[in-house]
Amino acid sequence: MRRIAAAFLVLLLGTATPALAGEELVLIVSTRSDVDQLDSSLVRKLFLGLTVTHHGNRLRPVLNEADSAIKELFLQNIVSMSDSTYDRYLLRLSLLQGRTQPTVYRNNAELINAVAADPTVVGYVWARDVAHDPRIKILRVVWHD
Amino acid sequence: MRQAFLFGFPSPRLIARPRGLSTWWRAALAAVSISFAGHSALAQHQHSSSEFEVFVAAEGLAGHGQPHPRYDDPWFDADVIFGFTHGQFRVFGEYFITGDEHDLERFQVGYEVVPDTVLWLGRFHQPASAWDTEHHHGRYLQTAITRPAIENWEDEQGLIPQHITGALVESRRPIGKEAGVQISGGVGAGPVLIGQQNEPIDLVGSNPGKHGLSFTGRLAYLPDYVGTSSAGLLFGHDQLFARTPLALAALRSDHANLTIYGAYADWGVDAWRFIGAAYYVDVALDRPNPNESFMSGYLQVERQLPHRLTAFGRIEDSARMQESRYVALLDGHTTDIDITIRREAVGLRWDYARRQALTVEFDHEVSLSEHGYEARLQWSAAIP
Q1: Pairwise CA distance, residues B126 & B120, whole Å
Q2: In this structure, what DSSP letter does residue B330 have?
Q3: Rounded Cα distance, B278 and B234, in Å
Q4: Which terminus of chain B has fewer Cβ atoms in its 10 Å neighbourhood, N or C?
Q5: Can you tell me the distance from the alpha carbon of B54 to that of B44, in angstroms, rounded to the nearest whole number?
């Protein structure tokens, strides 16, 4: 039984890996933004709902739930929390101080447009989706295959 | 998640017409709002966002030695959280609804002076409570069904005043690369002592009686600046004036000055979480009555298990409550167990769906004159 389960797992991994082969998840802002870099602790703080400013401007995070792989990589590499823990964390912030939770986008194009339109917005997408977009600046690679 | 901000009072019948103190208070809030609206900082930040969450819970209770559900055991409750942020300016409220009550528990207008330092005006939960400042009225984010008796709200025969109307400063500053320190201080008008409870200022109702000064604070260490673990010291001082003949007769004093010293820890280690607090409460009465004091503390241990289960257990204990006239005044004098002086509780929570949980809890409680066993079953959720 264990062998069958192991074989199934290998099969699953085998089918999943090529889908992300060569992919990069990147942190993005508008080219109109004067933010050129954000270290990982500030990025984590930003997506955990605390205040992060740059030259007096408050940065605003947006969540990308366009596909489950992006969400999983965000949870693992940016906030270091499980899905349920992150959800409870954001609810807790609302309960403690009424802090607003990040806007969720379930469509890549809409998220990229939102980032491009507002120099204070920070988001994350697959690198290939913004590689030739002159409106978008890549701040850092969050994850790569 | 973020939503369009639409919130209004549901019906004129539900809210008493504002009178007395609330009138000047509403005027003050309006003035603050107008003055912030003209601040130059807001001109740079045009973004507005709003928040609307509802925490709901339904509970069933069975027991031996406690024939009637208490006031703090409503079969259904809803805790409505609403917030509005515009740049550094914030408005935030919490409206709690049960079958028996509906109160604007918190209403705060705030300004974030520097990142993570907010000055609030309004009615708030005093920061020297280890439990209430973390869980407030919503049940969903609280693992156990019951709260420790020493953390009870004023209308649940709570001994420590929990609602203050005035000014609150909350600040979080980094220490080194990861850690931080949290400083909170609040000052304002506290509750008044009526028959068998403390009654805080009602922002949308009348406020008879003399509300004394309360000031309260917390100094806490955060091992992770953005994390949820913390440990620290608590302090509070409340000047409570007795309003009713019953309160005057029971205390033999027209006031009680409470001074509270406490320490707490809320610490997560892997799948474990430890929440503990200890309070020493000094009660000063009119001379020649001698001052009195009592202590209370609790420790709750939680352990996350597979299948989204969380087991928990809590012990509560106290000292010298039986000798306190102040405690005796707030005790309900009914057949119910009211002010719990000792409790052991165990339970299990199952987060069976996103933002929904079922919890079962078994308690053994000892009050000033009785003891009893209770079993509770609760469904809780956060909407949306």
Answers
A1: 12
A2: H
A3: 9
A4: C
A5: 32
Kindly report the CATH class assigned to A23-144. alpha beta
Backbone angles phi and psi of B180, in degrees to 5: -160, 170
CA distance A3 to B204: 67
Q: What is the DSSP letter of B372?
A: E
Q: What is the pLDDT of residues A114-129, one digit of tens each?
A: 999 999 999 999 999 9
Residue A84 has pLDDT above 90, yes or no: no
Contact A97 B115 (CB under 8 A): no
Give chain B positions within 8 Å (CB) of A96.
133-134, 136
Instruction: State the pairing for strand pair A103-105/A60-64.
Output: parallel
- Closest residue, chain B, to A82 (C-alpha): B308
- What is the 3-class SS of B229-296, one letter each residue? CEEEEEEEEEEEEECCHHHHHHHCCCEEEEEEEEEEEEEEECCEEEEEEEEEEEEEECCCCCCEEEEE
Rounded-to-integer distance, Cα B56 and Cα B137, Å: 10
Give every CB contact of residue B335 below 8 A, 6+ residues apart in sequence.
B67, B68
ipTM value, please give it: 0.75
Q: Is the peptide bond before A102 cis (omega within 30 degrees of 0)?
A: no
How far apart, in whole angstroms, are the C-alpha atoms of residue B279 and residue B152? 13
Q: Which element (helix H / strand E) includes A103?
A: strand A103-105
B140 contacts chain A (CB < 8 A): yes
Per-residue burial over B57-69, b if 16 or more Cβ lie within 10 Å, else e, is bebebebebbeeb
Would you kindly state where each structural domain of chain A is located, as residue ranges? 23-144
From the list A52, A58, A88, which residue is nearest B45 (CB)? A58
Are A79 and A44 in contact by the 8 Å Cβ rule? The answer is yes
The residue with tokens 């366009």 is: A66
Task: Locate the DSSP E strands across chain B.
Answer: 48-64, 76-86, 89-98, 102-114, 117-125, 163-175, 179-189, 192-193, 198-199, 213-222, 230-241, 255-269, 272-285, 292-305, 309-319, 340-353, 356-367, 371-383
Distance CA B323, CA B341 (A): 12
Contact call for B1 and A103, based on CB within 8 A: yes
CA distances from A110 to A33, A59, A103, A106, B299 (A): 18, 18, 12, 8, 48
Structure token digits, residue B310:
């969380």
Which helix (DSSP H) or strand (DSSP E) does residue A73 occupy? helix A68-74
d(CA B229, CA B274) in angstroms, rounded, equals: 9
Rounded to whole angstroms, the Cα distance separating B363 from B181 reads 35
B114-163 pLDDT, tens digit each: 989 999 999 999 999 999 888 888 889 999 999 999 998 888 888 999 99
Extract the residue ranges of chain B whose pLDDT is less than 70. Answer: 1-46, 65-73, 332-338
Q: Are A137 and A33 in contact (CB under 8 A)?
A: yes
